[in-house]
Amino acid sequence: MDEKKKVIFSGIQPSGQLTLGNYLGAIKNWVKLQDEYDCYFCVVDLHAITVKQEPKDLRARTLEVMAIYIAAGIVPEKNTIFIQSHVPAHSEAAWLLNCYTYMGELSRMTQFKDKSQRYGESIAAGLYNYPVLMAADILLYQTDLVPVGSDQKQHLELARDIAQRFNGLYSETFVIPEPYIAQTGAKIMDLQTPTKKMSKSEDNPNSYILIMDPPEVIRKKVSRAVTDSVGEVRYSDEQPGVKNLITILSTITGQTPKEIENKYAGQGYAQFKNDVGEAIVGELEPIQKKVKEILADKSYLENIYKTGAQKAEYSARKTLSKMQRKIGFIPAAR
Ligand code: TRP
Q1: Which CATH superfamily is domain 7-186+298-327 in?
Q2: 7 alpha carbon to ligand 1 midpoint, in Å?
């Protein structure tokens, strides 16, 4: 008999092009989870529109993110890969959960505080409510584990609080999700300001490497990455630029930071940087090729997101009906 596998849910917003940070910090780890867990990997387009999106870019990126998932090794038959807006239960559950979430809780979210400082009064209400939509994503699938970076921990914590509150008010409805901390939870930093997380929203393109950057661009960006005047390849907080490049190399090749330090002892940075560039190119080039093949085959991709949405819809509906019933809504007559 098949023992019931634990459920994992994660998603990436199609709001910009994905970076090496998204790949090494998230997607590469997801690939390792697919045999052991029942995984839902979502392209969260509803989240993306909390900031302005050009419709044609949103369309292209949504498909590209999905193609990247698959090209990176997430096998469609083993997982549920889908587009968030294809499963309306996400929007519906988010409304319901909004009524069990306090303004105070949402106002304390640091990501919202940062963003509202940047946008002022004309910040979208969606950006404020965004953690509730994320809670709906997670809770609809009775998710056990959520692989998240440190910037999303607070949102996951809120999802747990909302779930506990709802369960307490009515009766057991949701599984309380836990963060999944990957053993190799690589946090990739900005190449120009290595004390900040690598982000696609940075103005200077030398700050980040995109998954789809051509090899020569990748090599150039690595060679321009900020290091220091120490001149030693050392995995140390005092050398954040070098440390970040070691993390990248280590995550790709599987060598430990210590092994990498030893290999380049007394050599300065030139060969080291060169090898980091080649390692990234070696990892991303085959993925880029597959992404292009997948995007060229519309019906293949369409088939995957259709099947994914059907599978997701089935589980999500079950939880949504349960919520509606407990709240006291009259089930619609058929
Ligand atoms: N908010 C997440 C981010 O910006 C993306 C996301 C949306 C997500 N729904 C999720 C991540 C559910 C994990 C689980 O990175």
Answers
A1: HUPs (3.40.50.620)
A2: 15
